């Protein structure tokens, strides 16, 4: 069950003790200069339904993500892709790969299906969609297209739609409508991504194949390439995430991630207070990211702030964390993090918050608290400001997660 989210005015509780931890790590590559790299990302998906339905997320997924490898590739195939327990696409294949050749530096994503069917409403054979994004001679470009071997709406064959124009909208009686050959691209100062989707089904009529109000993409592809940069940036931030054993039961809240940066702009995501049933009450959560890539320097910073957390009769004041990573053209790499937990209170008792990394505090009969949980690698750092292990519920709640790194 998803947590109920409501926007309300909040008060921070128990501001009686504080902990703040800040750490900086600087590394030098030893090289007088660092070579520029490209960032490659992309995916191909057989079917993808957007409605929160169980068992209807991305199927037949091929993906490469945030890599500097110009020969990365991923392939997948499946006999049948289902949505709502209905066989939508048969004999599905997907592949995504990066390249560095006469075309330039780029990514191509392909998806095919031998047979696509929504009962007697829509029948398509020989579907193929592809998109490519590339950089060459200082220019960013993309292309995308979809073709079909045959297409039938009801009992009527429509040969004029075998090579549809971009974003062709077609009414489907008894279903709603579909968009064929949905394509586009978005260009920024640091790169470009393109997308192509063979069919996007918009079910706005009650039918037996897809629930009313559901959007289903069939053969969905994306390709992304960055301009030359000293390094790729990566990372993530979220306010809270709750797990029972190894199962995620809530979150991550206010989640953000990055691969190219934000062109130096601060991107903020916030939610009001929320309730994780039988686990915790969470105050307002805000995360930010700010980063950029270039030929002289690449840098990224993530932050996370949660107003308060209540577990059983334990109240925890504001929780914050941040993580930063950067690389300069002379090969120097820097990592920085901080975390802060304002207070811990149970009833009228206020606990001293330990002021050191990976410190623990046991609240008898309630929970074990771990503060400033840090993981370091050569070019990546992550921090959880607070991890709560709730004894009675066999539940772990992570609060204040930030991570940042550079690739290349």
Automatic annotation (TrEMBL):
Residues 1-34 form the signal peptide. Keywords: Signal. It comes from the Bacteria. NCBIfam families: choice_anch_P. This is Uncharacterized protein. The lineage of its organism: Bacteria, Bacillati, Actinomycetota, Actinomycetes, Propionibacteriales.
